[in-house]
Design a protein that fits this description.
With 522 residues, this protein is an alpha/beta fold. It contains 19 helices and 19 strands. The protein binds 6-O-phosphono-alpha-D-glucopyranose.
Length: 522
Amino acid sequence: MHPQEQEAAQPGEPVSPSVADAAPELPLILLSHRGPVTFGRNADGERVVSKGSGGLVTALLGLAQYLGDAVWICAAATEEDAAVAREAKRHPVRVITTPMPHVADEGEEGPDVLVDMIEIDEERQAEFYGVFSNPILWFIQHGLYGLAESPVLTAAEHHAFEHGYAGVNEQMADELARLVEERDGRALVLIQDYHFYLVADSVRRRCPNVVLSHFVHIPWPGPEAWRVLPPWIRERLLRGLLGSDIVAFHTRRYARNFLLCVQDLLGLDVDPDEMTISVDDRTVRVRHYPISVDPAALIALADSQEVHRSTDELSDRFLNSGNRLILRVDRTDPSKNVVRGFLAFGTLLDQHPELVGRVSFLALLQPSRKDVPEYSDYISNIGATVADINARHTREGQQPIDLQLVEDFPFAVAAYCVCDVLVVNALADGMNLVAKEFSVVNRRDGVLALSETTGAWEELGQDAVTLYPFDVQQQADALYEALMMSADERHRRLEAIRAQVVGSDIQRWLASQLDDLRVLMR
Ligand code: G6P
């Protein structure tokens, strides 16, 4: 059964199937680009450890306690990570995952995972991550190219694919195969995301008895979008993924697009009813499992003193005398559509001057991928748009938009608690966990204004106010509708969204995958 077809449990009800019940019988190996922890040095020169960034890492960390003796392979992200990797001399570092991830002391008990950080040559990493993964794959999969002018693929991009992307994929596949062979050739391998499309096929060739799933966390577009790449690149990417037993996505639409790509671009037979592909003598299953959040952990954080202090501060600043607060929380990624979101807010204030001074827009944006030129240009564009709207609509020294470039999760949770409208107007987004996080902790019957092109819309769109991401006027009208909605209607909608999120939580995401994989562990 597909997750969306399962009935949503009510808040507080136990969720089934549970991860504990679905725990794998084979040794488990995870691979993702970002790891669960990253190392640095503090001002006194001492080694410090912090949680790896990104929602994917947060989601997997919370689950590590159910995964037995799992090993987690990732790229060494900092110089200090590389130093740790060298010291560990190819023996994984044991990390306790909760409540705060840290390196386990000798004999320390607790939910843990073995972290195997792989040092990647700097030049190769720059081509792998800064040229091919971001922007090329990311831009194709999020539909971000203005095709009249970009991309322009030259020898540099070909080299970035061959030397950078394929090179790093091979390095990771070598390590995976080594660990699988150490486990007598039998292991359950969970590969994550767009950085490693070539790994499954390479591991399968060397370890035919492995059970392998590849989860793609970003949108998967139809075949035409992939024609941006020449056949010798796009076919290798698709063939690479077909080394998996299960290729997984967040939504049914992405899964269908993948089947279409395999049919059109590789000419293979697919079964659209069973969602399977026959490859040589194997069957590859294409599935969807919507990723989610850990409601209990979010509620606990929302109840912490730190968050309470911030909610008081935010209420004092933004909510006096019946004033209202619109919020967005995003990475500064062009796919998040931040600029059009502000243009829509500017239009709202132009067309409803009575709202000026009564509605604020708080934007908490985490700077992201600043080494990629498209990303740094986008931050400048955001700044210019905000300056223009604030110049037009500042009243008595109060600016309508408060733009903060920060990464502070507890503060974001405080803002989720007290906002009246959450704006998610992404051009394309694999899932969007911000929408789910907000719905669990919001205390003001806030309205979710959600783009129809996010994965989350498939689950939550019915009770959200839908945004059409290219239409600034429509987004302004939708914001007005959200602000004017009756209290009863807001309450009803938020409760429905919350029930859906709680009933299909992060445990269910993993348990459903493990249930399907268990059948393949012959
Ligand atoms: C998305 C991707 C993740 C990635 C995260 C943060 O959610 O699906 O794989 O880790 O963005 O991006 P970054 O480039 O900082 O890892």
